[in-house]
Amino acid sequence: MKTRIMLCISLVVAMLLAVSAVPGFATVISYDLNLVYDGVTPSGSAPWLRATFDDLGTPGTVTLKLENLLKSQTEFVAGANVKKPSRSQEGWAFNFNPSKNLSDLDIAFQSGSNAADVVVWGSDKFKAGGGGLFDILFAWDQKPGSRFKGGQDAIYTITGISDLVAGDFNFLSTVKNAQAFHTAAHVQGIKCGSGWIADTPSNTPVPEPATLLLVGTGLLGAGLWRRVRR
């Protein structure tokens, strides 16, 4: 019996050492745009768009995956003003941690089927209908071949700040007589008009396997301790 207990304790210690060797606990924040707050509702069921931020457990680099889940190929996200990108107001917008320097960000396209024609950022620079002011905007050209349509995606690498994490994009838009959201987008090509959509603003970061392993190890250790006492 004593040998078995010592073996179990050794296993727990080994698991704790393995977790401590992990450089950080990854956080994934995923936003489903499933709410229409202005204009016409897109066809099909929600969510119509999805954005996922992932810091991979290593501060300083965050990946962002943009997914278009629109059901109709006549509906799309666009909004770019290629000649004057600073004036782009429509597209897909996000917020950033106000305590960090937004101008230091570097956002680079990594892979995917349709990269945005314009990516611009500035504090409270972009107005998303009645959804408040946002800091980062991805916009596609209005030309039919450039529009961001259902089934397409775009993956970006975001760097430039040494302690950048996914949680830095978990902030609500600045509002003045408007609603606040983590992200908002303008969907065009809808029958009878267009619509502004956003996430339901109650998102909570999702723990990744390293965090779950730590929790599981703690529960296992507590169980073994009760067994030793008995």
Automatic annotation (TrEMBL):
Domain of life: Bacteria
Pfam families the record matches: PEP-CTERM
Residue ranges of domain Ice-binding protein C-terminal in the record: 205-227
NCBIfam families assigned: PEP_CTERM
Protein name, entry field: Ice-binding protein C-terminal domain-containing protein
Organism: Geobacter pickeringii
